[in-house]
User: Which sequence fits this backbone?
């Protein structure tokens, strides 16, 4: 016989179960992506490019895929890892997102990695470039690049092109350390000499004292890595100190010549040779269409961070098509492994072993084309893997 107390308890249990079910059913209709990027602070240009590109992709492809509505929840972490961690936690626990994405700097990607593992959600790194990031969680994949990919190639290029003495200037945190290591290994193995090695802080760097020393040391070139957003300030100080007239050319990974800023750097940027994964001048039809659509929507040129965002959201769409809309972390990351597609940057894929991006690296020179500054690609290295992983 049922007592009154039992009936009440059963009713409560039933309501809880139903509430739980309807919650789950609702969650299944929508695939949520928590987009954590710096929209303010020194790295804001990265966040803006990624946010713009994700919105553009969704305008072009609609906001439903495999029967699911795609919802992007944008959060500004100002590139401060404590913020990233708190926001990732809130997105996973409260908003029940299926994917976390963005990560404008390496420390932000690191901060979110344990949460992706605990929450079993896919983490798509759209911007940060330190090799080891993808090893921090089995749920991490990347649509940006690694500094190693471009730094080994510019190191070899420098040797082959008669550059013997180089001064280096790198941002003093993980991707800068990777850039320096991979460049230096290749350049010195080929007989080059590093005459000056300077590391500048990530936040508000002052390049001036170093630039004067470099000018006096008279190297053939300076190897520069500063993260996206800082190239304009670097080139301003380079020009003010007269390095453009001293014959010391700028080489490096392409971050310093980000298309987002390049056109405002002035003619002193002309002749800079960098190795990188994207140029707004990449001559494919897909890229021409991408650049035109981005310019039409936002009035500016897309840079490499925009492409990382565009490809990151594409990866979610294509993986969902493959899984028939299943969006749990294990199913989604499995679907992403080995995926291949044509990006505005050229052909790319996700290495099924490492979950890292495999892509072409182009050597480019800044030139004036129709009155505007562009990184004009002149040599292509196909399907480059992250050397930080192949070295192991
Ligand atoms: C990074 O923090 O990993 C990072 C940020 C901006 C870049 C490259 C690397 O341009």
Assistant:
């Amino acid at each position: 016989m049922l007592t009154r107390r039992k009936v009440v308890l059963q009713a409560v249990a039933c309501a809880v179960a139903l509430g739980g079910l309807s919650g789950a059913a609702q969650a299944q209709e929508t695939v949520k992506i928590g987009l954590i990027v710096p929209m303010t602070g020194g790295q804001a240009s990265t966040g803006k490019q990624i946010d713009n590109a994700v919105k553009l992709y969704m305008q072009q492809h609609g906001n439903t895929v495999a029967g699911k509505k795609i919802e992007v929840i944008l959060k500004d972490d100002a590139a401060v890892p404590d913020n990233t961690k708190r926001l990732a936690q809130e997105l996973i626990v409260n908003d029940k997102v299926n994917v976390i994405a963005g990560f404008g700097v390496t420390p932000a990607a690191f901060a979110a990695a344990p949460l992706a593992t605990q929450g079993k959600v896919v983490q798509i790194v759209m911007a940060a470039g330190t090799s080891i990031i993808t090893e921090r969680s089995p749920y991490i994949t990347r649509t940006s690049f690694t500094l190693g990919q471009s730094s080994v190639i510019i190191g070899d290029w420098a040797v082959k092109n008669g550059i013997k003495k180089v001064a280096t200037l790198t941002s003093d945190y993980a991707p800068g350390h990777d850039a320096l290591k991979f460049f230096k290994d290749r350049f010195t193995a080929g007989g080059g000499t590093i005459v000056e090695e300077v590391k500048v802080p990530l936040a508000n760097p002052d390049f001036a004292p170093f630039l004067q020393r470099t000018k006096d040391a008279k190297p053939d070139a300076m190897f520069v890595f500063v993260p996206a957003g800082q190239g304009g300030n670097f080139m301003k100080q380079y020009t003010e100190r007269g390095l453009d007239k001293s014959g010391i050319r700028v080489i490096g990974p392409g971050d310093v010549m980000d298309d987002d800023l390049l056109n405002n750097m002035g003619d002193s940027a002309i002749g800079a040779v960098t190795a990188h994964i994207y140029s707004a001048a990449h001559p494919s039809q897909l890229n021409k269409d991408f650049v035109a659509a981005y310019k039409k929507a936002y009035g500016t040129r897309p840079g490499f961070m925009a492409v990382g965002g565009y490809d990151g959201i594409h990866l979610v769409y294509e993986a969902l098509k493959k899984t028939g809309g299943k969006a749990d972390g294990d199913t989604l990351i499995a679907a992403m492994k080995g995926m291949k597609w044509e990006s505005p940057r050229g052909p790319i894929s996700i290495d099924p072993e490492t979950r890292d991006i495999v892509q072409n690296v182009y050597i480019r020179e800044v030139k004036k084309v129709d009155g505007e500054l562009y990184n004009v690609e002149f040599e292509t290295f196909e399907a480059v893997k992250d050397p930080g992983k192949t070295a192991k």
